[in-house]
C-alpha cells in the first residue's frame, strides 16, 4: 500500500500534524493543508488516491470541499472527519459522494484502518476501469488489422462516431469487414453493456424478414404458435446491425422508416405499438444513391440511414496491410489447430501482395486457411497458392536474365519494406529476416538502397 498519495485537510493544526505523522510513518505520501480554500484550488484529478477532510471548518465547509473534489475527480475516495456525526449529516455526506465518515476523537489505528479500506476500494475501481478500457480497446482493434493510412484514419473516425448515438451507414465491397467495424462502434459506445444484434437482409427470404425483425403475436399467420420477440426488441438498449440493406423490400423500407421516426413498431398481428431504444447501424456493398435514383430504395430512408458514412477501402487499396493480415490469420490457425506455420515464402508473399483480392479480407482469410491445409512444412509456398488464386508465376520458367532481374526486384522490395518496418534498424531487420547483418549491408550497397531514407 506504500506510496499512495493522500491529501489531508483540517484547520486544527495539531490534529492535522498528528494525522500527517501517523500516515507518513506508514510510507504514505501526504500533502497536508490547514486552509481548505488553498487545498481545493491546488487539487487536480489524478493527483491523489485519497482525500481526508474535516467537515466543520471556518474558511470553507467540508461538504463544499467534497463537492469541488467530486466535480473534478469522481473516482477519488473522500473520508470526512466530524466531531458530531449525526445521522442526517452522515447521510448528506454519503449522498454527495463521501466514501466514509470518521468521528473525533479517534485512535491512530482507526484512522489507518479507514484509510486502508478506502485505498483498497479505489484500487479495485481503478483496476475495473482499466480492465473495461482494455477490453473495449481489444474489441476495437483485435480483428481490425492494418497500419495503412486509410484504415488508421477510418479507426480514428470509428472512435469518434462510437460515442455519438447516431445512425451510421458502413459502405464497402463484400468481405471488407463491415460487421467488425459495426461491432467496434457498439463495444466502444455507451450501449456496450447491452446486446449487439446482427441481421443480414440479403440472406433471409422476404416473407420471413419482417417477422424476424419485428416479431409476431401468436396466431398472426399459419405456423405462429407462440408470441415471439423480433430482433428490434432483442436489441433494446443496444445496437441493431442491418447488413446488406440494399436488399430490403419496399414494404419493409416503409415500416423501418416509421420505426426510425418514432422508435416504435407493431409486431405482426398486434395493434398496440412496441417502443424500444435501439441504435441502428447499417451496411451495404451496393451504391444506395444509385438505388435511390432508380427508385428501388426510398430516398427518405437513405438519409435516415446515412447520417454518418464510414467507407471501408478494398484490400487492393491496402496492399501494405496484407503481410499483417496474413500473419494474423496464420497465427489464428496455428492456435486453433496446433500447427507451427511461420509465414509465406518470399515468392508467395509477392504473389499475395500483387493479387487483386476481389473477395477482399474474407477471401484472403479463406485462401490462407486452405493453403495451410494443403502445405507441407512451416511455410506456405507459391505452388499451394497457385491452386487457390491466379498468379503471374504459374507455369513460367524464367531465363537467366529474367531470373536475375526478378531476384533483384524482389530483394529490393523486400529489404525496403523490412527496413521501413523497423525504422532503419538493421539489427531488428536482420533478426526478422533470418539473415546476418553483414549480408543485409552488402545487399543494401549492391542495390543502392539508402538506409537513412527508410528511418
Overview of the molecule:
Mean pLDDT is 84; it is low at 134-141 and 394-401. The radius of gyration is 31 Å and the shape is flat. It contains 19 helices and 16 strands. With 455 residues, it is an alpha/beta fold. It has four domains: 5-132, Response regulator (Rossmann fold, 3-Layer(aba) Sandwich), CATH 3.40.50.2300; 143-313, P-loop containing nucleotide triphosphate hydrolases (Rossmann fold, 3-Layer(aba) Sandwich), CATH 3.40.50; 316-386, Helicase, Ruva Protein, domain 3, CATH 1.10.8.60; 400-454, Arc Repressor Mutant, subunit A. The chain has a five-stranded parallel beta sheet with strand order 2-1-3-4-5, sandwiched between helices. A five-stranded parallel beta sheet has the order 7-10-13-6-14.
What's the name of the CATH homologous superfamily of the largest domain? P-loop containing nucleotide triphosphate hydrolases
CATH architecture of the largest domain: 3-Layer(aba) Sandwich
- Individual helix count: 19
Whole-Å distance between the termini?
Answer: 44 Å
Under CATH at level 1, the class of the largest domain stands as: Alpha Beta
Sheet with most strands: strand arrangement: 2-1-3-4-5
Major sheet, described briefly?
A: 5 strands, parallel
Q: What does the oligomeric state look like here?
A: single chain
The residue fraction in helices comes out at 40-55%
Q: Can you tell me the overall shape?
A: flat
Here the CATH topology of the largest domain equals: Rossmann fold
Would you report the number of β strands?
16
Tally of separate domains: 4
Please identify the structural class as seen in this structure.
alpha/beta
| Rg, Å, rounded | 31 Å
- Residue windows where pLDDT falls under 50 for at least 5 positions: 134-141, 394-401
Q: Give the averaged pLDDT, no decimals.
A: 84
Beta-strand residue fraction:
5-15%
